[in-house]
Amino acid sequence: MKHRPRKRFGQNFLTDQHVIHQIIGSIAPQAEQHIVEIGPGLGALTKHLLKKTQHLDVIEIDNDIVEHLKNFTQYPEQLHIHHCDVLKFDFATLQKKPLRIIGNLPYNISTPLCFHLLSYYNLIDDMTFMLQKEVVKRMTSLPSCKSYGRLSVMIQYYCAATKLFTVPPTAFEPQPKVDSAIIRLAPFQEKPFTAKDELQFSAVVKQAFAHPRKTLRNNLKDLLSDTQTLDVDLSLRPGVLSVEQYVKLANSLL
Ligand code: SAM
């Protein structure tokens, strides 16, 4: 198919066969598993997934690509195309669970998309994504590292996050300006630390990192009362607290 890549949809298509096989190998899809691909594009990964699974759901926003995908397999009942914006897609409507979600994600929506997916963590077995290397670094960072922030805390609260390997710009057409990396996110069956109210936890973490150079006391002043005693030292900067400490902090603010 002749297709002019659309920048607004973050279209950097994978062309390096070695990298494509490396990604499929690291997913190791099995026939009976429920695989969901976000942004199949011209089918670089889709083609291989269709060989391995009986049922593949794909979510794609681009009209022209969706038309192309309709004729992509000789077994149309195997491929379920959802023509929509993945940020609005309700993953709970997919029948067979748990889900294995994969994708070479459009970089412009990767952070909001990961937050959207975290709201379905209990339906998901694992997620294998290509992201900007910097974003993978933020997701896997530990306290006191420069790239540790809200995204690190929220991802690591819900998932075991593992960087698998890096991918250079030359693996794509057109080539992105930055390096990419593959990450595996596996939602915990039992979370190591549990927030009593996850919406409140998420709000506390967001507020704590509102100004990363300010102290927790300063960032959280609207949520604190004079009488509360907290387990956490509020004179610290937000970037030094572990996930466990954020859970403690949020629970004690309830
Ligand atoms: N999987 C293909 C590959 O590896 O070559 C294409 C990857 S390309 C980086 C991202 C894909 O996501 C494109 O096909 C693009 O049209 C699609 N996309 C972008 N924004 C989307 C959205 N909001 N919802 C669903 N698909 C989207």
Overview of the structural elements:
The protein has 254 residues and is of the alpha/beta class. Helix content is 30%, strand content 20%. The protein has helices spanning 17-27, 46-52, 63-70, 110-118, 133-140, 150-158, 198-208, 216-219, 243-252, and strands spanning 13-14, 34-38, 56-60, 79-83, 99-104, 124-132, 159-167, 172-173, 180-187. The strands form two sheets. The protein has a seven-stranded mixed beta sheet. Helix 4 packs parallel to helix 6 (150-158) and helix 7 (198-208) packs across helix 9 (243-252). The longest helix has 11 residues, at 17-27. The chain is elongated. The model has no long low-confidence stretch (mean pLDDT 95). The structure holds S-adenosylmethionine. S-adenosylmethionine is lined by residues 9-14, 39-42, 44-45, 59-62, 65, 85-87, 104, 106, 109.
Strand order of the largest sheet: 4-3-2-5-6-9-7
Helix fraction bin: 25-40%
Shape: elongated
Biggest beta sheet attributes: 7 strands, mixed
Radius of gyration: 20 Å
Task: Kindly estimate the percentage of residues that lie in beta strands according to DSSP.
Answer: 15-25%
Q: Please give the alpha-carbon distance between the first and last residues.
A: 55 Å
Oligomer: single chain
Summarize the helix and strand pattern as letters: EHEHEHEEHEHHEEEHHH
Number of helices: 9
| Counted beta strands | 9
Give the helix/strand class: alpha/beta
Bound heterogens, unique: S-adenosylmethionine
Low-confidence stretches: none
Q: Compute the average pLDDT.
A: 95
